[in-house]
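Work through this protein:
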Amino acid sequence: KMFEAMKENVELTFEQKSKLSFLHYPFYEEYLALIEDSAAFKESTKFSKQLALEFGIEVFDFSRLICEPINFSNQDHLNLQGASLFLDHLENCFEQGCKEETCIDRQKKSY
């Protein structure tokens, strides 16, 4: 049911001639390691890839972008500091072009 609704939303977006991108948000490393083999995560990933192919949607995978636990309020939610890092990265990404990066918080040591 959820996937049907998502597809309908994508179709409506394209009917309105709007640009659409899919973003995979950052996850805490250990949490991602636990869930990425789960059936639900695999099904969701497969469905979003199918939609991306079908509609020509650009996909940005930031799931491994932020790694330090200090930037998360729990396993899959960034805290204010982590959200600020992520938003700064998104702004640069869309202005200068996105490239796949991991653990930017370890590289910049901004905390």
About this structure: The first strand starts at residue 21 and ends at 24. DSSP finds five helices and four strands in the chain. The beta strands are 21-24, 58-61, 72-74, 77-78.
